[in-house]
Amino acid sequence: MTKKLVQHGNSAALIIDKPILDLLNVTMDTPLEISTDGKSIVISPSSSGDEEAFVASLEKINSNFSSTFKRLAK
């Protein structure tokens, strides 16, 4: 599917068709994360706060108990 940007005030907007939004379970209220690798734009639903809290907890546990984990792995 090829799309063109449309003028939206002083900005450009990309219109995403409803079937794609439905497929991704995205609504007008869904926060979207936009990233790029320098050649492509990636638009994805933002991860929930629960996932971010989980990753933060994991990093804290790993930093606090890394020596224990290394001894257990032997």
Descriptive notes:
The chain has 74 residues and is of the alpha+beta class. The chain has one domain. The protein is built from 2 helices and 4 strands. The mean pLDDT is 89.
Short descriptors:
74 residues, alpha+beta, two-stranded antiparallel sheet, 2 helices, 4 strands, elongated
Question: What is this structure's SSE topology?
Answer:
Layout: E1 6-8, E2 11-13, H1 18-24, E3 32-36, E4 41-45, H2 49-73
Antiparallel strand pairs: 1-2, 3-4
Question: Would you kindly provide a brief summary of this structure?
Answer:
By secondary structure, the chain is an alpha+beta fold. The chain has one domain.
Which runs of at least 5 residues are low in confidence (pLDDT < 50)? Answer: none
Secondary structure class reads alpha+beta
Main beta-sheet annotation: 2 strands, antiparallel
Strand order of the largest sheet: 1-2
What is the helix/strand order? EEHEEH
The overall average pLDDT, rounded, is 89
As a percent range, the share of strand residues is: 15-25%
Distance between the termini: 52 Å
Helix % is 40-55%
Domain count, please report it: 1
Shape: elongated
Taking Cα atoms only, what radius of gyration do you get, to the nearest Å?
Answer: 20 Å
Q: How many beta-strand runs?
A: 4
If helices are DSSP runs of H or I spanning 4 or more residues, what is the number of helices? 2
